[in-house]
Design brief:
With 415 residues, the chain is an alpha/beta fold. It is built from eleven helices and 18 strands. It is globular. It comes from Aminobacter ciceronei.
């Protein structure tokens, strides 16, 4: 068994580590010239944290990430709506980490090279086409910088881990179309800032019609003053957006007005935004779930298979769960096409449910309910608007869909 993994992102590197642990041959092909720490913050929820812990990575994660204590929801006037403990503070066996995407990628890459050797990942190989015969999967590459042809590669299977603009997906589903705009544009940045709310809180505030913020720390103790690296995302409903480009620079004047008076007693939100070294802008997009993503010796994983709105902190987590399911199917042995179909059977409907739920009732639906019930005004007594039991039910419903409710995580551990 020789598995070709297209893409050295979170999903591709996690899959490689899991295949190596199972004794299955693989190689990772990455179009970038080097594996560099790029991106901004992401969450590793308990279901994904469990898988990375089983790979022996929890100490490395704990060293660079922020171990989250609580998830909090506020309206745009700074009034607390709901909060709940997370990770081990909520009784899980595994922590919830908030981490810079580049830090997570570097941890995965370093572990993979240490365990499987430096030749297991090749960089500067841009995949341009895939095909298959009865006996092999075939991938064609060019140099990611010059465009010159690379040698044709063959193996038992190809796994497309190459993101929302996946070359492998376009080959498998040529009429798939482009990303679907949600109607929400996003601006993201990171800022060195003093710890707020104890330094381990994931905060969502406001609502999309007027402006919503997601704020959480992703690195600790950057200087002698104990400042953290704070990841923030500003989200606003708008018909205007630019085609998705993860590196498009955003302009402060395009959105700061929505948050100009957000001076909460625990955080100066406009000050946090203005303190960012750089701002990125991109639209919130996803794609409709596919009817299938395994075709003979070819399959998809992560954003290539099921791109979703970043409204449930679950994109990276679902890719990690994909990797676990696929590695388990390979380890069970059998015909390659049957292995990939078994993987699809495990994950296709589960991830489709997350895609749809992120559109309709992700965790921040809590903010929407309060926004609508109060008419976007401060409340005198929250219980007159919505009960804590109702809010907890909204939160717990999403956990079950995404697979990180306590029962599901505990069951996986017993299995």
């Amino acid at each position: 068994m020789d598995v070709m993994i297209i893409g050295a992102g979170i999903g591709g590197l996690t899959l490689a580590l899991m295949l190596h642990k199972a004794g299955i041959a693989f190689r990772v092909y990455e179009s970038a010239q080097e594996i560099r720490p790029i991106g901004v913050g992401i969450s590793i929820l308990p279901h994904a944290s469990r898988e990375l812990t089983e790979l022996g990575l929890q100490p490395a994660l704990a060293e660079v990430a922020v171990t989250a204590r609580e998830s909090c929801f506020f309206n745009r006037f700074g009034q607390l709506i709901y909060k709940e403990p997370v990770g081990t503070f909520a009784g899980y066996d595994y922590p919830q980490f908030q981490i810079h995407r580049g830090d997570l990628q570097q941890i995965l890459y370093a572990a993979l090279v240490e365990r499987a050797g430096p030749d297991c990942v090749v960089t500067g190989w841009k995949c341009i086409d895939v095909e298959q015969t009865a006996d092999a999967a075939i991938a064609r590459f060019v140099d990611g910088r010059t465009g010159e042809d690379r040698p044709v590669q063959t193996g038992a299977a190809i796994v497309g881990c190459d993101g929302i603009h996946s070359v492998v997906r376009r080959k498998l589903v040529p009429d798939d179309g482009g990303p679907i705009y949600s109607g929400v544009n996003m601006w993201r940045g990171t800022t060195w800032w003093r710890p707020y709310l104890g330094g381990a809180s994931y905060v969502r505030a406001g609502w999309l019609t007027h402006g919503k913020m997601v704020i959480y720390p992703i690195r600790n103790k950057l200087d002698a003053d104990g400042r953290q690296l704070i990841n923030w995302v500003a989200e606003i409903e708008t018909p205007d957006y630019h085609q998705q480009d993860w590196n498009r620079r955003g302009r402060l004047d395009d959105f700061i007005h929505a948050f100009a008076d957000w001076s909460f007693d625990f955080l100066d939100v406009p000050g946090l935004i203005r303190g960012a070294e750089a701002i990125l802008e991109y639209p919130m997009v996803d794609k409709d779930p596919l009817a299938r993503w395994s075709f003979g010796r070819l399959t998809l994983l992560g954003d290539a298979a099921h791109p979703m709105y970043p409204r449930g902190s679950n994109g990276a987590g679902q890719a990690i769960l994909d990797a676990r399911a696929l590695a388990d199917c390979f380890a069970s042995g059998g015909d390659v096409a049957a292995v990939l179909k078994a993987y699809e059977d495990k994950r296709l409907q589960a991830t489709a449910a997350v895609v749809r739920t992120n559109r309709s009732t992700p965790p921040d639906v809590i903010l929407k309910e309060v926004h609508e019930r109060t008419g976007d005004r401060p409340f005198a007594r929250l219980d007159d608007v919505i009960t804590q039991d109702e809010l907890a039910a909204l939160s717990n419903s999403y956990k079950k869909v995404a697979g990180y409710d306590k029962a599901t995580v505990a069951e996986r551990r017993r299995a």
